[in-house]
Amino acid sequence: MNGGINDVVISLEGDNRIYYINRGLERGIDFNQFTQQLEGEQIELHVIRLKWSPLNPSRQVVPIGRVTLGQKVLFTDF
């Protein structure tokens, strides 16, 4: 799912939070390939520490720093 300006949004079954990779499309993520790799797979998301913000008081919007599928790193910002 595509979100804000060039963001890549990941939604998880049973979780109402919105996970996103800031400017992921600008960072080289091929949206269609990324979607195919993730769909139906068990992935690990490494979130960037959430701080309270008046724009996100319930902390429902969560920035992602790394996405892994098994031992394979699909995206990293670290």
How many runs of DSSP E, i.e. beta strands? Answer: 5
Summarize the main sheet.
5 strands, mixed
Quaternary class:
single chain
Mean pLDDT: 88
Order of helices and strands: EEHEEE
User: How much beta, percentage-wise?
Assistant: 25-35%
For the CA atoms, what is the radius of gyration? 12 Å
Helix content: 10-25%
Q: Please identify the structural class as seen in this structure.
A: mainly beta
Unreliable parts: none
Could you give the distance between the termini?
A: 23 Å
The number of helical elements comes to 1
> What count of domains describes the coordinates?
1
Overall shape: it is globular
Description:
- This protein has 78 residues and is mainly beta.
- It has one domain.
- It is built from one helix and five strands.
- Strands 1, 2, 3, 4 and 5 form a five-stranded mixed sheet that branches.
- The longest helix is centred in the middle third of the chain and has 8 residues.
- The two termini are 23 Å apart.
- The relative contact order is 0.23.
- The model has no long low-confidence stretch (mean pLDDT 88).
Describe how the helices and strands are arranged.
Blueprint: E1 8-10, E2 18-21, H1 31-38, E3 44-47, E4 61-69, E5 72-76
Care to give the gist of this entry?
The protein is mainly beta. The chain has one helix at residues 31-38, and strands at residues 8-10, 18-21, 44-47, 61-69, 72-76. The chain has 1 helix and 5 strands; from the N terminus they run E-E-H-E-E-E.
